[in-house]
User: Fold these one by one.
Assistant:
Number 1:
Amino acid sequence: MGCCNRRCGLIAGAVFGAVVAILGGILIPVGKIVIEGTVEKETVIEPGTTAYDSWVSAGANVYRQFWIFNLKNPVEVLQYGARPVVLEKGPYTYRIRYLPKENITFNPNHTASFLLPQGAIFEPSMSVGSEEDKITTLNLAVAGAYSLVPNVLHSVLETMIRTSNSSLFQHRTVKEMLWGYRDPMLKDTVGLFSTYNGTYDGYYTVFSGKDDISKVGMIDRWRGERSLHFWNDKYCDMINGTDASAFAPLLDKKKLIYFFSSDICRSASAQFEASLDLKGIEVYRYTLPPSTLASPTVNPDNRCFCKNPKTTKNCTLAGVLDIGSCQDGRPVYMSLPHFLHGSPSLREDVLGLSPNEEHHNTFLDVEPTTGFTMRFAKRIQVNMMYGPSKVITVLKKVKDYTIFPIVWLNETASLDDQTADMFKNELISRIRTLELIQQVLLGTGVAIFALCLISYCVLRGRNSQSKLA
């Protein structure tokens, strides 16, 4: 009778262990469903969700750092046709995106519209010098006019340059180069970012994710249009993805992520590179693939981005993007800093450049469960072009078209400690607690089941031996 009770007890224990293990196994998909449901609910762009407050106003400080290229040999370039030699000077740091979105409107089709105010505040403590530091660099007015004026009018431009006592290069303060100065030749305000402060980026319309979480944050319209009108091509004029501040939750690292940047007037993609730890939070690092600015001979998708075969060596030049069509015709070329991933000729025409993948490539660190971008560095370089002329004195010694680097910028932000702790407490700790419960139940159940089953087999074997004896 005692043996029977022990066997029954062991069988009951095994059954109990199996039930506990099954419960732990059931919690895995159930817990996943609960987590995904909560995440999807909280990442919708609407008042009251976790995503909304950070969407309205950037939670972390966003900075834009500038490195300006200082020309070391202007006389040699002008008088002897020497290749320019440059040395970067920076960073000169400004705080941006400190103003919340304006004119936020929620539309019936589950989209939200808004304007993004633009402004910059100088941060002396994060800069190498003051805004009054002087830089020798390309004359924006002369280079711009040269690109826009046909050869038959070079004599007119020569007169304008001589009358205003201008040259191919100029000596300006950092503040003047970035935010504008009155040019003596054009009699107008000229500056790399003279139209930035006090203006808006947008009007944007994005999907809220209310009806389809996979579309949350994706841009539906920019400036009221669903496509661009800069490239005269359906593919290149597509507006794809989000503004890169967030992506759809539950990321699949095998898939590319897409974003649109008004700074470069086009959409782009980023690919998964590695999993990293950011203040105790796992993030996926995404970077721009080299094919982004590859020449059309390497990446045929870039054919429609080649606007001027003459200045891009018949569309074989890699690493630069002519965005003149979205800059009111101004001859502006965008690239990665120091012409990273660009054709070697770019660094042969201008000496002193040294591209580095770690310091010059753009990256996004995205938390994969929520899709929130926790840290990013958007790095781009602004260049202008000049070339030879038989009439314009300051260009007579120039041998070929030169894309001259003026400044490169690093727009960056990172998750602060307070927000990281809140994120870990609100989401990460709950996920880990649920995973721990799952593991404990599954492990305990399997252990009880195995122990009872083994004990039952041992007991049954002993009883069989006793009967034989």
Note: The mean pLDDT is 87.
Number 2:
Amino acid sequence: MMNSDKISPDRSINIFYCLIEMNNLSIHQDIQEFLKSKNRSERLSEIHCSALAHMLQMSEEVLEELDLQKYNTSDQGRHRLIPAVRNCRKARLAQCGLSETHYEVVASALKSNPSHLTELDMSGNKLQGSGAKLLCAGLKSPNCRLETLRLEKCSLSDISCDYLASALKSNPSHLKHLDLSLNMLQDSGLERLCGFLENPHGGLQTLRLEWCSLSQVSCYYLASAMKSNPSHVKHLVLRGNNLQDLGVKQLCGFLESPCCRLETLRLEYCFISAVGCEYLHSALTFNPTHLRELELRGNNLQDLHVKRLSDLVENSHYSLETLRWS
């Protein structure tokens, strides 16, 4: 009966306490042996997952990483492990079918004092409406110390982008790495997020926007926002968007800025031609000191189209070290 998935997590913990009071330490010992073992292939029942989450929360030692996919248990068992995020530094909750209740638990961990979470991966979970609002309430908290946030393939909507932009703008100083790839953000969604990028107190270093259905209009929004706060972003990934040459031209307005500190620019599969290469060459010639890596693969370019760019790699006056186009 204890191993039934029909028993709620709270009731499982009550049973766990009752067993300890009765001097039945079987589950407690099972979990202790599991924590000591390097082999995590043993299958955990739902009540074992509830007990494990409880013990991890109560531990004086902060767990370095909670990766739900590494535990051999059912989906319900993984859900019961989620409360342990309150006492860990890195939480990987990707593709776990999270509900509003789980978003509330994560938000509570971000709000707690102290909050230990510095890295959060929620990729592959639907983050819409009330779920996004709950999570963003945690991101807004002054106790939140999150440095890395991954929300790949989370079905983000315009209203989700509004919540996210507002939350990150309220508490911008800690987040360094943001991954929003594989969301249909489109130009309207990105425009909403640029309010966060414009914040002078922001410290974002890496922004990943792969396959987000962006156009040249998004490049205008991005360039304008990063010009307002250009000194932090070092790595920009725009792979798989329909930017075209005019989009590249907009981005080059940022690359030419004397305050630009961009080191990596990835523009694979962005429908760029030789004209776009010329825009990039002109921008890098104007501001040669920072960009080290430029990715242009998947744009059907030939050696002739990128010759002037490849010459910059050979010139010690320029920082460009890596150029890929084929």
Note: The longest strand covers residues 63-67.
